[in-house]
Amino acid sequence: MSTEQLELDFGPPTPISPEYIVTKSNVLIETPLNLDLQESRIIYTLISLIQPDDEDFKTHHIKVKEFADILDLQEKNFYKKIRDVVTGLQRKQLVIRENNGESDLVVNWLSASRYHHRKGLVELEFSPQLKPYLLKLKKDFTRYKLANVLVLKSKYSIRMYELLKRYLNFGKRRFTIEQLRNLLEIEPDKLTHYGHMKQRVLLKTQEELAEKTDISFDFEETKVGHKVVAITCYIKQNHRKKLLQKSAEVFESDVTAYSLLTRFGVRRAVADELIANFGEERVKANIQYVYETKQEANIDNISGYIVKAIREDFVNNGAGYDDEDDFDFETSIPQLNARLRRLIELHQEKIEAGKKSDEKRLRSEMTQEIVDEIHRTLDLRRTRNLRPLESDDFEHPYARDIYEYLLEHPYVV
Questions:
Q1: pLDDT tens for each residue of the chain, 413 residues long
Q2: If DSSP states are collapsed to H, E and C, what string results for the chain?
Q3: Which partner from 5, 324, 362, 370 sits 20 to 30 angstroms from 66, CA to CA?
Q4: What is the C-alpha to C-alpha distance for residues 294 and 301, in angstroms, rounded to an integer?
């Protein structure tokens, strides 16, 4: 048999994007994963390629250069580095507690991997024993955008993000220190004193999640005597996300409407029907409209919202947001302006009556209260499906200037 006959034949490389959605069983979230930072990024990317209708795991062929970008590799010989990471990942196992602890499943993450040297591709496929935890999940699962974990620089931050994201709707989660050490996979001889763990893991993770992801958290310590034995994390949607974002590479000109629909969770039969009825251009335009206007929305039913947007053509008729209620104290623009006006007037009176040496501090306090009020109103408007605020919505020039500054500096809190 010739070399040409042995050469594998496969289609185009699988596209990857930070905008794809990771869906994992909560059992898997609560299981130590035995992955380092780079291995985690590869596994989570592979999970994001699973589509809602998939009955089996697919073999994916991914460009080495794209993996290098995901792994944030700066060295020139990233081909060798990725080959080493994939080889190591092939050996990695995890232990999943099953049947209420009656049995343990010991399984490799990957059933197979192949590195195509001349083609610059990596071939990966999940082990079939992982199907119950990644395929066709109907309940007890957690979903989030891949981007939330790709930007994190610590494996502890990635694990903490998932463990807290699962409990976002509850608003809090309690861990014993031993439980948290196990879930974060801190080695028994490392960070044995709580103070070290707090400084090197908890506080750094808290900072990184607040700066880069769609959630943030505070925590409260529980002590027995002088010893901290547990912490309670208070979880909330993150206000440090960008208020406005540009279209991502996911909307490059050569991407198909069908690919976009399935990647955002729309089932294949529905995707075929939408494209047949409304055409490629309308479908893509409305997907992009939803993406751009729903950056901070809960994505649990993003596929249903996309289908609704296409059928009702949100992009051309301005639909998608609920009607304004000018008498709603918490969300209405007139009420917001009234609150901001009173707040500014009150602080200006304090500044005029205070000492010159206190003026800088008083102005800083006023600015922070305006920022807090804007963020609070944005959050409430988003949860009630009202349109984002615009600069022209702000009557007071100082408040308008602050909002425009926030648009340019989205991580200011």
A1: 334 433 445 567 888 888 788 999 999 999 999 999 999 999 999 999 988 778 899 998 888 888 888 777 776 778 888 888 888 898 999 999 988 878 999 999 999 888 888 888 899 999 999 999 999 888 889 988 888 999 899 999 999 999 999 998 888 999 999 999 999 999 988 999 999 999 999 999 999 999 888 899 999 999 999 999 999 999 988 755 543 344 445 566 667 888 888 777 787 888 889 999 888 888 988 888 777 666 545 455 577 778 888 888 877 765 556 778 878 888 899 999 999 999 999 999 988 888 888 888 889 999 999 988 998 888 788 777 777 787 888 999 999 888 887 776 544 45
A2: CCHHHHCCCCCCCCCCCCCCEEEEEHHHHCCCCCCCHHHHHHHHHHHHCCCCCCCCCCCEEEEHHHHHHHCCCCCCCHHHHHHHHHHHHHHCEEEEEEHHHCEEEEEECEEEEEEECCCCEEEEEECHHHHHHHCCCCCCEEEEECHHHHCCCCHHHHHHHHHHHCCCCCCEEEEEHHHHHHHHCCCCCCCCCHHHHHHHHHHHHHHHHHHHCCEEEEEEEEEECCEEEEEEEEEEECCCCCCCCCCCHHHCCCCCHHHHHHHCCCCHHHHHHHHHHHHHHHHHHHHHHHHHHCCCCCHHHHHHHHHHHHHHCHHHHCCCCCCCCCCCCCCCHHHHHHHHHHHHHHHHHHHHHCCHHHHHHHHHHHHHHHHHHHHHHHHHHHHCCCCCCCHHHCCCHHHHHHHHHHHHCCCCC
A3: 5
A4: 12
191 phi and psi angles, rounded to 5 deg = 50, 50
CB of 266 closer than 8 Å to CB of 284? no
**Residue that is written with structure tokens 């289908």 in the block:** 307
Whole-angstrom distance, CA of residue 378 vs CA of residue 372: 10
Give the whole-angstrom CA distance, residue 221 versus residue 231.
4
- List Cα–Cα distances, 166 to 24, 41, 140, in angstroms: 10, 19, 9
Q: Are 131 and 107 in contact (CB under 8 A)?
A: no
